[in-house]
Amino acid sequence: MKIRYAVIRILTNCGGLFLFYMLQTSLFNYLELANVVPNLLLAFTSLSGFSKGRKQGMLIGLFSGFLLDFFSGQLFGTYALLYMIIGFLNGFFRTLFFGDDVKLPMLFVGISDILAGCAIYLIGFAIRGKIDFTFYLNNIILPEAIYTVILSIFLYAGMNHIDQRLTTYERKRERRLG
Question: pTM above the 0.85 mark?
């Protein structure tokens, strides 16, 4: 029976990855604020690592990054490695996870988005000699981080609700069977 629960969780995570990728690349392109789009896949990675631990954070980060790498046309593997590291690092703070408290997860999403933006700047722009970091920070990194954190509040609530429902379902099923 444990395999069944694992499959349900894997399918739920795959559905989340697909949903957030589609929202990030389609719907939110029309809902730009300050010329930025929220990074829902990064928020999903960060929240998964924070709430479920290093392994799940790494896996969600790897697959989120592969989705972005595969469809972005840039250097393949950059986002996968970056998001995997972010999921892993957020997983270290799993011991601080308290289901309904939203402040700490949002802080980690914001920090993760800023760090990812800085890494993308270094990989994509600084290497090519475009050195105006303050412009990039003020016009891309910080607005994106703020937009992502605001939407992550709703994302976190949804993820927490789904996780509680799955956990309740698993416990009821185990009691009934055993």
Answer: yes
